[in-house]
C-alpha cells in the first residue's frame, strides 16, 4: 500500500509531542501582535499566548501561509514517494484552504501522478487535530487514502460543540462569527453559547449571568445532547481553567464510562476567540 503523509495546520492545536508521535506535519500560521510576528506552535504556545493577549495594545491577527510555503511542504513529501492527505482549518474562516488547492495544482502540473487529497474540516481547534491523529493511525493500517478521507470527514461531522467565550470582542473583530449572533453579546447579563455552523462560529443559545458558567454549560449540553454515557468527549480550555475543571467534574459524574480528551485552545484559534472553554460531544 502507498505511504500516506497526514498534514494539517496550526489551527488544529496539536501539541509538538503529538505531531512527533503520530508523524503528522503541521503547517504553522503566522500571528502578528503589536507589530511582532510569531509562528503558532513554533514561537508561541497556548499558555504564553494568553499572557500576550492580556498585554497587547491591539487585538492580534493571523496571516495564512503562502501558496509557495504550502507547495514546499507538499513537494517534500511527494519527492519522498508519499501520498498526501491534508485536513484543513474551515475554509469559511480562512483563505488557507484555497491556497492549499493552488499549491496542489502546482504540484500536479509538474507531476500528474502525485496524489494529494484535501479535506475541509469546516471546523476549528482540536476536533480536527484529533481527526488528524485518527487519520495517521488509519494510514499505518494501510487503508486507502480516499477511505481515510471519508472516515475522517465522518468523524468530524459526528461531533457537535458548545463553548462559552469570556468575551465576544475577539470574534467580533476577527469576523469568525455569524454577525447576527453578536446580538447575544449585547444583552444585559447574558453569556452566549457558541457552536460551529457552516464553518463559522454562531451563537445558538444563552445563559444568564457569568457566574457558575461551567454548570450552566453542562446543563445546556445535557438539555441538547443528553446521552453521552460511554462516549468520547473533547474538553477544550483556552485559559479558563477554573471553569474547565468544574465542567470535567460534571461530565464524569453525569456520564459513567465517558472517555474525555483534554485539549488546550492554541494561539491560532485564541487570536479569534480569546479565552474560552467548552466541549465537543457526540451528536
TrEMBL record:
rRNA-binding keyword on record: no
Organism (species): Congzhengia minquanensis
One GO MF term attached to the UniProt entry: lipid binding
Record protein name field: DegV family protein
Pfam assignment, any one: DegV
InterPro entries with a match to the protein in the record: DegV, DegV_C, DegV_domain_contain
Domain of life of the source: Bacteria
Stored SUPFAM superfamilies: DAK1/DegV-like (SSF82549)
Key words of the record: Lipid-binding
Annotated PANTHER family: DEGV DOMAIN-CONTAINING PROTEIN DR_1986-RELATED, FATTY ACID-BINDING PROTEIN TM_1468
Signal peptide, first to last residue: none
Amino acid at each position: 500500500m502507498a505511504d500516506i503523509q497526514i498534514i494539517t495546520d496550526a489551527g488544529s492545536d496539536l501539541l509538538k509531542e503529538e505531531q512527533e508521535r503520530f508523524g503528522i506535519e503541521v503547517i504553522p500560521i503566522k500571528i502578528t501582535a503589536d507589530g511582532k510576528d510569531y509562528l503558532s506552535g513554533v514561537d508561541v504556545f497556548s499558555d504564553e499566548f494568553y499572557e500576550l493577549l492580556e498585554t497587547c495594545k491591539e487585538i492580534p491577527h493571523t496571516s495564512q501561509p503562502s501558496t509557495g510555503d504550502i507547495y514546499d511542504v507538499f513537494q517534500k513529501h511527494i519527492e519522498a514517494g508519499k501520498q498526501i492527505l491534508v485536513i484543513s482549518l474551515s475554509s469559511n474562516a480562512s483563505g488557507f484552504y484555497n491556497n492549499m488547492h493552488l499549491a496542489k495544482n502546482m504540484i500536479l502540473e509538474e507531476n500528474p501522478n502525485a496524489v494529494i487529497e484535501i479535506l475541509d474540516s469546516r471546523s476549528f481547534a482540536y476536533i480536527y487535530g484529533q481527526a488528524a491523529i485518527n487519520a495517521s493511525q488509519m494510514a499505518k493500517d494501510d487503508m486507502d487514502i480516499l477511505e481515510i478521507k471519508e472516515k475522517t470527514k465522518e468523524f468530524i461531522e459526528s461531533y457537535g460543540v458548545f463553548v462559552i467565550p469570556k468575551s465576544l470582542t475577539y470574534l467580533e473583530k476577527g469576523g469568525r462569527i455569524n454577525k447576527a449572533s453578536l446580538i447575544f453579546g449585547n444583552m444585559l447579563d447574558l453569556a452566549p453559547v457558541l457552536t460551529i455552523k457552516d464553518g463559522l462560529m454562531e451563537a445558538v443559545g444563552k445563559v444568564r449571568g457569568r457566574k457558575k458558567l461551567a454548570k450552566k454549560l453542562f446543563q445546556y449540553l445535557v438539555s441538547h445532547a443528553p446521552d453521552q454515557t460511554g462516549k468520547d468527549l473533547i474538553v477544550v480550555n483556552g485559559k479558563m481553567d477554573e471553569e474547565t475543571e468544574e465542567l470535567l467534574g460534571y461530565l464524569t459524574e453525569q456520564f459513567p464510562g465517558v472517555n474525555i480528551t483534554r485539549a488546550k485552545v492554541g494561539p491560532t484559534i485564541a487570536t479569534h476567540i480569546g479565552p474560552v472553554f467548552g466541549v465537543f460531544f457526540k451528536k
